[in-house]
Design goal:
492 residues; alpha/beta; 2 domains; 9% strand; membrane; glycosyltransferase; pentosyltransferase activity; RgtA/B/C-like; cell membrane
Length: 492
């Protein structure tokens, strides 16, 4: 123990990383349930080969941890923290193949200090397992390519498949691998090696559950993830808000120093390739192959499409290793200072909720809503509960309540994976219901004063009740409209 303690004290980089992770671990018990936590927990409680929005890896992990440790908000958060901690360790191993000791330590601290690692540690999303299996894939592919270890072609294929079973953007792993082999003069010989194709075939085989679920359900998930986005991109309408919004997101996730280093070395390598027809060394090209398609590819869409803040996250793994080659000690200190300020502010917000969040994407109020909803069910017995906001309110109430809570498919609207839970809505015919609707940006405690026409179409009578007002720190922070609906008549 003394040896380990001495090693940590003498190694400033590890001390910084452990400090950030300890900070995140201490905050875990104070984090409330996020809608994403509840929704992907619902995945795990309704096991399936895949799911409508995404593959099911995050749901499987939440199910495993809840089976072992029990159901609680803390265990949900701890799952994310634990998997992300494994990603950090895997990153260190991967970075050690490319960087000297000093640069490795800087890259290690760079990764641990980012906001995106904090987000992954606190919030259940498919990106949590994606980043782990992405990193493991690169470790395996490195050993297969640069150390000529055949076993790692197989392990790399498995890891790439598991990454895809986490999130569809993992397809960029196979694309990156192929691009690297094509552009690397030293490694182009791999095109004649059966091991490359064995690895790719294994990665496809591991993704079979996702493909089979889509086959069984008319490829609903693939269509959902591609059709609307393809049509939006094809319209080619320039939007400055999309572009500058993406820059703002990346500045926040990476913090300004790291983001600017990303932009600098991206420009440097692309300029050298296009103007001087010079490619970097084979190892650097390997890192770029798994950075450029994702980072530059998505960034190039930002003038015409709203690119979500987490889409570029996989590129950060090799991007931060590349940044470790360039960042100076002075810039690293600036990065750490900015990071500490952001994390202190984040801590204050978590503990004291000083800035109200006018959105359903918040960790406060859900448990209190469940308590008030159960009181309503006692007042109006034999009622079922449903909501209409894609998944957020329904998923959170499902987490905290014993009775099943339904989504907007009750009134004939698409409801993401709630449409695939196997519910027979005809069994609810003639029953009464309580409809909960969030007032995201509420200004008064007044009733809504109007009824959604769809409620009238599916229920005999609809009466608005007093809204549920959630108080946080003695302040009115959240508001939910409530409607009592009688005699449900599902449409055939």
């Amino acid at each position: 123990m003394n040896t380990i303690k001495t090693f940590i004290i003498n190694n400033k980089a590890i001390s910084w990383v452990l400090g950030f992770q300890l900070f995140r671990l201490i905050l875990l018990p104070f984090m409330g349930l996020m809608p994403q936590d509840a929704y992907y927990y619902l995945y795990g409680q309704n096991l399936s080969l895949s799911y409508f929005d995404h593959p099911g890896m995050i749901g499987y992990l939440l199910r495993i941890f809840s089976e072992v440790f029990g159901q609680s908000v803390f265990i949900v958060k701890f799952t994310d923290f634990f998997i992300t901690s494994l990603t950090i360790l895997s990153f260190y191993k991967l970075a050690s193949y490319f960087l000297s000791k000093q640069k490795l330590q800087r890259a290690f601290v760079l990764l641990a200090s980012t906001i995106f690692i904090s987000i992954l540690s606190f919030n259940s999303t498919p990106d949590v397992p994606l980043l782990l299996f992405w990193t493991l894939s690169l470790i395996c592919l490195y050993k297969a390519i640069f150390e000529d270890k055949k076993l790692f072609w197989i392990l790399g294929g498995i890891a790439m498949g598991l990454a895809f079973n986490s999130k569809y953007t993992a397809l960029l792993l196979q694309i990156g691998l192929i691009l690297f082999v094509l552009f690397s003069k030293k490694q182009r010989k791999l095109l004649l090696s059966p091991w490359l194709y064995v690895s790719l075939l294994i990665s496809v085989a591991v993704t079979f559950p996702v493909w089979y679920w889509n086959y069984q359900n008319d490829f609903a998930s693939f269509a959902f993830q591609s059709s609307s986005r393809t049509s939006s991109i094809s319209e080619f309408k320039f939007s400055s808000s999309y572009f500058f919004g993406a820059i703002g997101h990346q500045l926040f996730l990476l913090l300004p120093v790291l983001f600017l280093i990303f932009i600098t070395f991206t420009y440097k390598y692309i300029k050298r390739a296009l103007l001087k027809f010079r490619l970097p060394s084979s190892k650097t090209l390997f890192l770029l192959a798994f950075f450029i398609p994702t980072f530059v590819g998505f960034f190039s869409l930002t003038p015409i499409y709203w690119v979500k803040l987490n889409w570029m996250m996989p590129s950060y793994i090799t991007g931060i290793i590349l940044a470790g080659m360039f960042i100076s000690k002075k810039l690293l200190k600036i990065q750490l200072i900015i990071s500490i300020i952001f994390h202190v502010l984040f801590c204050i917000q978590i503990l004291f909720y000083v800035a109200p969040i006018k959105s359903d994407d918040t960790w406060v109020g859900w448990k209190e809503l469940a308590i008030e909803t159960e009181k309503l069910q006692e007042k109006y017995p034999n009622t079922f509960v449903f909501s209409d906001d894609n998944y957020k309110t329904s998923a959170c109430l499902n987490f905290f309540m014993d009775d099943k809570v339904y989504a907007q498919n009750i009134i004939g609207l698409p409801a993401l994976h709630f449409d695939y839970l196997g519910d027979d809505l005809s069994t609810l015919k003639g029953k009464n219901a309580i409809f909960i609707d969030s007032d995201k940006r509420f200004k008064t405690a007044d009733k809504l004063g109007e009824v959604n026409p769809l409620l009238d179409a599916y229920f005999k009578n609809v009466t608005e009740l007093e809204p549920i007002i959630i108080q946080i720190n003695k302040n009115q922070s959240r508001k939910f409209w409530v409607f009592y609906c009688t005699d449900y008549q599902p449409k055939k």
